[in-house]
Amino acid sequence: MHVPSLIEKKREGGELADGEIRSLIAAFTDGDLPDYQMSALAMAIFFRGMNADETASLTRAMLESGEVFSWPDDHPPIVDKHSTGGIGDKVSLVLAPLLACDEVWVPMISGRGLGITGGTLDKLEAIPGFNVNVSQADALAQLEKIGVVMMGQTADICPADKKLYALRDVTGTVPSIPLIVASIMSKKLAESLDRLVLDVKHGSGAFMKSEDDARLLADAMRVVGESMGVRVTTLLNSMDEPLGHSVGNALEVREAIDTLQGRGPGDLVAITLDLATEVAEASREQLASWLDDGTAWEKFVDLVEAQGGGATCLDRYAEIHPAPVVRRIESDRAGTLARVDAASVGHASLELGAGRARAEDAVDFSVGFSEIAKCGQALSRGDTLAVVHARSGSDADEAERRFRASLTFE
Ligand code: URA
After folding, report:
1. Each residue's pLDDT tens digit, 298-350
2. Of 36, 65, 71, 205, which is most buried, counting CB atoms within 10 Å of its CB?
3. Residues flanking ligand 1, CB < 6 Å
4. What does the domain layout of the chain look like in residue ranges?
5. pTM for this structure?
6. Is residue 168 annotated as a catalytic residue, yes or no?
7. 79-314 is classed in which CATH architecture?
8. How close is the Cα of 153 to the center of ligand 1, in Å?
9. Does 183 participate in catalysis according to the annotation?
10. Which CATH class is domain 3-63?
11. DSSP assignment of 44-108, as one string?
């Protein structure tokens, strides 16, 4: 393999053959292809794109760079969902235990937040004791017992993606559809799934700003998944305003707990049921009843206990991770709220310390916003727009300023 020729071929808009892509990814994983050549190739892919065959080859090569889950022959349907990420998106915390009330297994591998979007692993770790580092053997044992495991990507799963994602992050090559498809789908396909539902977001707080781009990404992911024998459905969802009423790790866990106890906000419940219905055996009505009657909540408690979390702390979760400053932001006018800009709220939450600027940064579980008002809500002067949870008065001042700036009244 002459790597410079392959980089030039892609730079000129040519098509890379399956064998060429496999050799490139294998050499990169083994450390035989240096970062500078892989960065150049990623940039060529960013500008020239990849066709469906190349994207499938890249996904398969990244998948095969590591271990793939293997399940017993008589396993129940293996299902999962993936979201392209958003602000206040705590759906996984509700959906995984909800699906496990059904006759399916849910081996959910999630990521951490980066930039303004939150990550499921950070939210899980806001539950004291919860361990997201689970081996394949332990994951299988837990699935056999309770039907659900929520974990991070281990060193053995898609190592090529781990290396390539880190490079893309610092070379301006993240927003490339074939690279995103291969990155997301290789990790999901490593779960050896039967069914996958993809929640592809569009709007201010999403990766894909326009619905058209979101549709292109959704279709590309579906085609790759189906070419590998997985039943893939895609739902496009707006991320123009935060999901639910809370943004921030522990605050989102609180809202997920409320939802699992049948007291969830309408938009969060609706999207959870929309997604769950796509991969469940049970009907939407049955799934909704498991949220209302405590069945999903009991499954969540089982999940937390199985992964080392103190389930007793869930009863008094609202007292855990208190922020030093908690301040109500009141409306200074009457009117209907036309917009709560998701990206601005995400930035404000990031600045409070709920997110990270670099992958190795720590997050502060306690900070963020709760009681966020929703678009379309009619407000009087003095009504609550949101409650800010901050580390200091000056942080709260800045967050309040940013939050107010995110609002548009009709
Ligand atoms: N999430 C991933 O895992 N990879 C991407 O490329 C984008 C989002």
Report:
1. 999 999 999 999 888 888 898 899 999 999 999 999 999 999 999 999 999 99
2. 205
3. 111, 165, 179-180, 183-184
4. 3-63, 79-314, 325-409
5. 0.94
6. yes
7. 3-Layer(aba) Sandwich (3.40)
8. 12
9. yes
10. mainly alpha
11. HHHHH---HHHHHHHHHHHHTTS------TTPPPBEEEEE---SS--HHHHHHHHHHTSSSBEEE
